[in-house]
Automatic annotation (TrEMBL):
One of its GO terms (molecular function) is ATP binding. It holds the Pfam family ABC_tran. Residues 4-241 form the ABC transporter domain. This is ABC transporter ATP-binding protein. SUPFAM superfamilies: P-loop containing nucleoside triphosphate hydrolases. CDD domains: ABC_NrtD_SsuB_transporters (cd03293). Keywords: ATP-binding, Nucleotide-binding, Transport. InterPro entries: AAA+_ATPase (IPR003593), ABC_SmlMolc_Importer (IPR050093), ABC_transporter-like_ATP-bd (IPR003439), ABC_transporter-like_CS (IPR017871), P-loop_NTPase (IPR027417).
Length: 256
């Protein structure tokens, strides 16, 4: 059995059918990039993986268990908009991300467990390159640094699956490519399974080990909500596609 199995998943909101007939299998350690037109249901799909939304029909099975109907520590998420706490330092922001650490950070628990959490937080802070900023507050950080902080927070929960919803959409191109390196390294080192929504098809090709294109196969102009999107392309990608292959693949997907 695959690590994640998506069994005939349909999702609608009222009479708006957003996704239909999704049948997909994902192995542990895959990095799935997801692209598609605005409004075709990519975030909705991510929200179902997170457990924040339920399929209208069908099921999603993670590691042998049907997903519960609420988010848990198995799945960490990083959004385009930074989710850091403005009144906490970098270190406190990462420590508080630990599921059980809230009380400890606030001072109700002292001693060795707090020390362990701090050590773990410092490791992730180092992994995302924020060690020099450990005592800084979010308003003292650039956009890229805040996003690094959000990634460290997500990793702190040791998720089996990392969900990225346009994580680099708000960043400048130079910083984006640094972040690509970072997320690629984190993916490899932690053997994570990653799902990333992006509007940048090139980013999807560069970063993923697999690319899904969401699109509507059927379209009724008289009833635009009657049909949902499906995954119309499921392309395996080499570890890091070279530029020439990349351009060929982009042309192939863009012409469809
Ligand atoms: N909570 C909700 N209630 C009702 N409709 C919703 C809800 N969430 C999403 N939708 C609808 O589902 C459809 C898909 O939205 P979704 O945000 O998943 O698309 P997307 O592909 O991620 O779009 P974008 O690329 O613009 O972020 C849209 O028609 C949206 O209005």
């Amino acid at each position: 059995m695959s690590f994640i199995t998506i069994n005939n998943v349909w999702k609608s909101y009222g009479d708006n059918l957003v996704l239909e007939r999704l049948n997909l299998e994902v192995e542990q350690g895959e990095f799935v990039s997801m692209v598609g037109a605005s409004g075709c249901g990519k975030s909705t799909f991510l929200n179902m993986l997170l457990g924040r939304e339920q399929p209208t029909k069908g099921s999603i099975v993670l590691d042998g268990e049907t997903l519960k109907d609420e988010p848990d520590a198995d799945r960490g998420i990083v959004f385009q908009k930074y989710s850091v706490f403005p009144h906490l330092t970098v270190l406190q922001n990462v420590m508080i991300a630990d599921e059980f650490s809230k009380a400890k950070v606030l001072g109700w628990t002292f001693g060795s467990s707090k020390k362990v959490i701090k050590e773990k937080a410092l490791e992730f802070i180092e992994a995302v390159g924020l060690t020099p900023a450990v005592k800084k507050y979010p308003h003292e950080l650039s956009g890229g640094m805040q996003q690094r902080l959000a990634i460290a927070q997500a990793l702190m929960k040791s998720p089996k699956v990392l969900l990225l919803d346009e994580p680099f959409g708000a960043l400048d191109p130079g910083i984006r490519s640094d972040m690509h390196e970072l997320i690629h390294d984190i993916w490899q080192k932690n053997k994570l399974t990653i799902f990333m929504v992006t509007h940048d098809i090139k980013e999807g090709f560069e970063l993923g080990s697999r690319l899904w294109v969401f699109d509507k196969v059927r379209n009724d102009p008289q009833a635009p909500n009657a049909y949902g999107a499906q995954v119309t392309f499921d392309l395996p990608l080499s570890a890091r596609a070279n530029k020439e292959d990349l351009n060929k693949m982009i042309e192939k997907v863009s012409s469809n």
